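Entry type: protein chain
Record version: 2
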Amino acid sequence: MNAYYFESELPRHSEWMTRGDYHSLFWLAPWIAFAAVLFLVFIVIWSLAWKGWALWLSARRGDKWWFVAFLLVHTLGLLEIIYIFLVAKRSEKREVKESGGSNH
C-alpha cells in the first residue's frame, strides 16, 4: 500500500501510469459524461413528445384536470402514456357505443 505524506513524494503522472498503478477509471470520465448527456437528451425528447401529445389530446377532449396534471406532474411520460392509451381510448369506445356506432 502506497501512502504519500508529502506532495514531493507523489509520483509524476507519467511515472504513475508506466508503473502500473493506474487502477482508476479516470480515462472513462469523458465517455461517461458524453453518455450521460445523450441519455438526458433522449429523456427530454421522450418526455416532451408524450407530454405534448397528452396535453393536445386532453385539451381537445376538454379534460381540464388531466391537462393541469400533465402541466404540473413530470413522470417521464408514464402518466401521459396511461392517459393516451387507457383513459382516452376507454372513453372514446364508450362514446361510440352510446351514440350507436354510426355518425348518421
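Comment: Residues 45-104 form one domain.
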